[in-house]
Amino acid sequence: MINTRKEQNQMKKRLRVSIILMLAVIICSLAGCGSTSQENNPSENTADNVSEETADNVSEETADNAAEEAAPGSDENTSRDESAEGDESNEESGAEDAAEDAEDEDVEDRDPVGTLLDSYMNDPEKKHLEYVMYDVNADGIEEIIFTDKGRIKEIYGMRNNKPNLTIDCPESLDMTLYPKGMLRAQSNEKSDYGTKDMWMQYFPKWGDFLSVFEELNKEYYTFCAYNLSDEEIRQINSSIADINDYPVWLYEWSDNISKKDFERLVPKDSPVKLPESSSLSDREAIEVIPEYLEYVGAPDGYANLRTGPGTEYDIICRIPNDDSMEVYRKKATSADGKTWLKVTYYTEADNEDGYDWLTGWIAESQLQE
Asked: What is the four-CA torsion angle of 367, 139, 355, 133, rounded to 10 degrees?
């Protein structure tokens, strides 16, 4: 049985050769050629020509078959080459991606605040917010406060030198910042759960505001976070280390107290007036890297480093004359018309590093001319 077109063609060619040979023999017999010499024998010449033609055809077919058989191998080689090139390209692409990721992580480690602000600026739902850097508890470390049309919307504390979202204010509450790291959350007309007046305390060790006491529908309570003992602090630290969260009991009410006790606990200070906020789109306003040095030269022999640009803000520390500070580009004018500079001050501290960088505001008039 003939299986391929090529085999059919070969059979046809062999059949033609046989017919031609038979015709040649018949012609020679009729012509009386007999057994003449080989060069005058048309049959042999014809046979030779036919054989050469057949041989040529066979050679061509063999070459064609060889070429066709080689072609798949060639395709496989080409495929292997392309695959190898693809693998190399993928490896290069993967290496580039890994390098970019490492660079992003490095930037985030070096400038976590700037990275956070960039992410907000690129977020369609948050890019309209404004922000202000403010030291809520006068420890020389600034927190990040996001505002929406003057209303506190979000607050990030600093935990392990990275921003930690501690406040995400719902529409039903209005929040007001007070000195010494106190934050008040009051229900407004959008609230559907009655009268609420909650007070929170900022804990810099955890970079977080925790509820300490509240009024709820004319009932008064303290939370477990109020007046923590050393053992409770140890339990909190252990819980954060193990599960990166607080123990459940921390969110619970501790005691039911009287209205008089509640009023005694409520801070008597006036609310904090936050410094002027900046637009996220204004990249020039980002206060990440100080730009130059200034030296204290105050008449009293020292200058006060404060949490904001004005004497109404809390004092972080005193800086003696001739000590240097790194100064940011941002300036502010206080209510009395004085110019204040935002600075970072290096000082010795009783911690693992043995020093601290304190960030705050100092009056320009207290510097050396």
From this structure: -70
225-262 pLDDT per residue, tens: 999 999 999 999 999 999 989 999 998 999 999 999 99
Give the number of C-alpha atoms closer than 13 A to the C-alpha of residue 189, restricted to the C-beta side. Answer: 0
What residues are paired with 52 via a beta bridge? none
- Whether pTM exceeds 0.70: no
Can you tell me the distance from the alpha carbon of 225 to that of 238, in angstroms, rounded to the nearest whole number?
A: 15
CA dist 235 → 50, 229, 253 (Å): 104, 10, 17
Amino acid identity of residue 303, one-letter, is: A
Domains, the chain: 113-265 (no CATH), 289-366 (2.30.30.40)
pLDDT digits (tens, 9 = 90+) for 287-332: 556 678 899 999 999 999 999 899 999 999 999 999 999 998 778 8
DSSP string for 63-97: HHHHHHHHHHHHHHHHHHHHHHHHHHHHHHHHHHH
Residue type, 141: I
